[in-house]
Amino acid sequence: MSTLSAQPRDTLKKACHIQQDEILELNVPEQAWQIRSGTVALCRVVDGIRHCFFTAHEGEVIFGVSAKDSGMIAIAIEPAVITAIP
To answer: What is the pTM of this model?
Structure first.
């Protein structure tokens, strides 16, 4: 498993291609992303343990959370393309 090297703000003007098991941190509360293809699991990491609570599919939108809620991540279940919504 790997974490994307680009920060979410770097993806504002382009698509983010993530491979299976790659992670996108959702730590920018004013940012939203649309799943253009693929599926991602939305999870929160607490004490190193992932607690996944739903999946987002093509066409759906996911939102960032504030720093106090850090630990929120999206994990690609399959290769996915995600674009930031300005």
So the answer is: 0.76
